[in-house]
Amino acid sequence: MISTSNISMRFGQTTLFEDVSVKFVPGNRYGLIGANGSGKSTFMKILTGQLDQTEGQVSVGHGCTLGYLRQDHSAFDDQSIIDTVYTGNPALWKLHCEREYLYSKDELTDEENDRCSHIEEEFGDAGGYTMESEAARLLIGLGFAEDLFEQKMTVLQGGFKLRVLLAQALFFYLPSCVWTGLNQNAGVDSDNIMDAAGSFQSAPIHPCLDEPYTVGKFS
Prior knowledge:
Layout: E1 2-11, E2 14-24, H1 40-47, E3 55-60, E4 66-69, H2 81-86, H3 90-104, H4 110-125, H5 131-141, H6 158-170, E5 176-182, H7 190-197, E6 205-209, H8 212-218
Parallel strand pairs: 4-5, 5-6
Antiparallel strand pairs: 1-2, 1-3
Helix pairs in contact: 3-4, 5-7
């Protein structure tokens, strides 16, 4: 469960919202709607730890991992499509990069040899041996052909970049995902989204949407 207690946000003398207390219960889906500038994205940034609130507290239940759909579509332009999905699990991505670096070297130091003897177990425990198939399943569910997986994010237009970022948010069974800034102009087919997310049935998904039509699609 995710909950907030008396959350307030002020910018200088301007109060964006105050005393917001709410609970997001597993098994439900929630939509947050409001006019532009009313604080939807700010609240979601507070909920996901990207922004500190002025007052109040956010509580995330034990064992709950919070993921979110990023709004900066250009943040991963220097990475491949599938690597962008992998970064949705930061701990696994870090292990993956370290493992790739170690195995790319012709000669290893004693310390690196010792590290190699342990990293495989850590990598396996983190889900490393199935990461490629899981990422592929999400991308295919969102309409990507496999021959695109290794292409750079720069080959995609905005709507398709958003699909990759959605796969990133869902990667490796995140128990809770927050979708921010998603609307009917993003070029994302809601049926494809729900197909890709269908195996995450235990997760509450919290769309933050600007258009009531799109909320209706997800409710």
